[in-house]
Amino acid sequence: MADYRISIIVDSFDDCLALTRRLSQIDGHHYHTTLIHDVQTGFEAIAQQHADLYFVDLDLAGDNGIDLLRRAQFINNRKPIVVVTGNENPIIDMQALELGATDFINKNELTPQMLNRTIRHAITRKVHELRLQHAATHDALTELAQKHHFQAELDRAISRHLRSGDSFGLLLLDLDQFKPVNDEHGHRAGDELLKRVAEALQRSVRNGDLVGRLGGDEFGVLLESVTADDLTTIRNAISRRVQHPMSWRNTRVQVGCSIGAAVYPSDAKSAQALLEIADHRMYAEKGTKTDRLVSQR
């Protein structure tokens, strides 16, 4: 018997009763339902991602399900949303699918068999969708976010800030002395080192932060709801872990990194400006290291 957590975001008591009654009649599965009757609470429930699937009524009072789907796009929803509608409208149905709905059902044609099939298919379809999405948006070597995906998430972070007021941080990172590793030990050693760096970055950040590979040996970190202390702690952890030596065919291989940090909105008011400031600070740090090396010769 499979257990699923289902959130029903429907403002009509009769519709809630109909859905829960049909779910209780399904053999072989146990559905734990949570009933939600307004858009804001529904949005908060989707943001928390605690359910396995969300039913969303298109006819919510004071707002509508389309607006809720539109808001859910900005929170990186990873769970299936099934739209509940009382009228078949191909235009609205298509709009709902374009906004991220996995499927839709007609509340006037509910049967336990149809509900069970819809739930199972929606959950399976979402899993496959996320796998394809991951392959399209993540670097094959390091499993980190690709540059275009990282920049899209940066834009989403700004949109979230405009609603919540929370600041967020951006770190840009460039490896020091990576080219000599490639030149002396070959590209396989360089690739292995990049994978180790990616793992070090992932271990240094918090749940919900995003790490991306932006170029050959350039990386980015997007830090949600960050404080100055958080930024310093994470930056120091990254520097320490990246500098940890790697053994390659009985040879010690080691690189360092230069990091530039910027905070939205105190440092910049746009994604491009934030990237430029962090990039400038990163190369300023790299230049300081180069100057030290020259003076030591």
TrEMBL record:
PROSITE patterns reported in the protein's UniProt record: GGDEF, RESPONSE_REGULATORY
Matches recorded under Pfam families: GGDEF (PF00990), Response_reg (PF00072)
Transmembrane segments: none
Domain Response regulatory: residue ranges: 5-122
MF (Gene Ontology): catalytic activity
Names of required cofactors: Mg(2+)
Keywords: Phosphoprotein
GGDEF domain boundaries: 166-297
GO biological process: phosphorelay signal transduction system
Sites of 4-aspartylphosphate modification: D57
Keyword Oxidoreductase: no
Entries under InterPro entries matching the protein: CheY-like_superfamily, DGC-Regulatory_Protein, GGDEF_dom, Nucleotide_cyclase, Rev_trsase/Diguanyl_cyclase, Sig_transdc_resp-reg_receiver
Keyword Transcription: no
Family annotation (NCBIfam families): GGDEF
Protein name: Diguanylate cyclase
Organism whose genome encodes this protein: Litorivicinus lipolyticus
